[in-house]
Amino acid sequence: MFRRIYLDNSATTRVDERVLESMLPFFTEQYGNPSSVHQFGQQAKAAVDKARHEVAALINARPNEIVFTSGGTESNNLAIRGLAENIARMLRRLDTYRNHNQTVENIGLNGIHIIISNIEHSAVYNVSTDLESRGAKLTVIPVNSDGIVSPNDVVNAVNNLPTIVSIMAANNEIGTIQPIKEISRQIVKLRDSGHKIWLHTDAVQAVGKIPVDVEDIGCDLLSLSGHKIYAPKGIGALYIRRGVKLHPQNIGGHQERDRRGGTEAVPNIVGLGTACKIAAAELKHESERIVKLRNRLESAITELIPDVIINGAVDRRLPNISNISFGGIEGEALLINLDMHGIAVSTGSACSSGTIEPSPVIKALGRDDSLARGAIRFSLGRFNTQTDIEFALNYLPDAVRNLRKLTQASAGR
Prior knowledge:
By secondary structure, the chain is an alpha/beta fold. It contains 14 helices and 14 strands. Strands 2-8-7-6-5-3-4 form a 7-stranded mixed β-sheet, sandwiched between helices. Strand 3, helix 5 and strand 4 (137-141) form a beta-alpha-beta unit.
């Protein structure tokens, strides 16, 4: 029987059977609308409230600081765009009051500053550049060769404009954990000195993998996603610190305290709550187990395969991600070769117009195009075992060796 193993858990995860079991009644038995006043609706509302408490508990937030969304991308958009538009409205109201010559509806984003790093996920990078096209000032901070943002670089980029800083908690390609707590401490000092400044962190990859405590971090906004922690796709959440105001992006009913209109996806919300509860209970043990698997994978690769580089800070990264550049080959070719043997991995490269574009994240580390195109991400998860790692190691050295021979033969023509 052909065997398949999945080493792409940072892309998405299999739904945990315990999560699925908790969801099933809300498809067929307790299917009410949480906004309805009858018993069916109240059962659904109670389930949503329970899940809200479970999500909040995982990140040490208050339940009323949690807004359910459709996933990490929507959470990032609600955080950054919602905050920027709310700031713009406040500025317009103030300007209208002073000058009596503008309307609140005439909203641009001039006078708002956004600071991000150059390894942010596209869900942060693209919404930020979109806001830049509407008049906001955008500053992109580089990372060092380990893939870490300098808090000092963030602080030095701050000017007198109302500022939104969005730095991810951990990178999705190389797993590097960013100094969010240190950045937050600097932002508090700036705020105390009179700056209008807010901190958002995309914690989609970090939540459920490492301890995440919003009170300890001190962030104003934090995004998370269900399908990265064994809940279904199509559900996520945004933590909004009490007192932070956002302009809603989904305009409709009064759900989520007027912060996100639309009937709640009760089964998915229940699944996210259960996934967060499981993650909180198993985080320490699971992290230690996965680190051992990752270390076995990396030690064997570096021993058996020459000309490889582990990308990112090896001592400051998520336990489940290993990003390795294989010199002399295209990562896409290795991915396809491994997939033919039943091994699922990923690259950060993109195919555009028939050519392989190197990963911007690996390029940001200072790697050349060849190493950036030769990068493979192995991301481990709850259902991976030692047997999976050994299975991958049985094929990987030969696959790399054969691809290098083909590359050399092609170059010699």
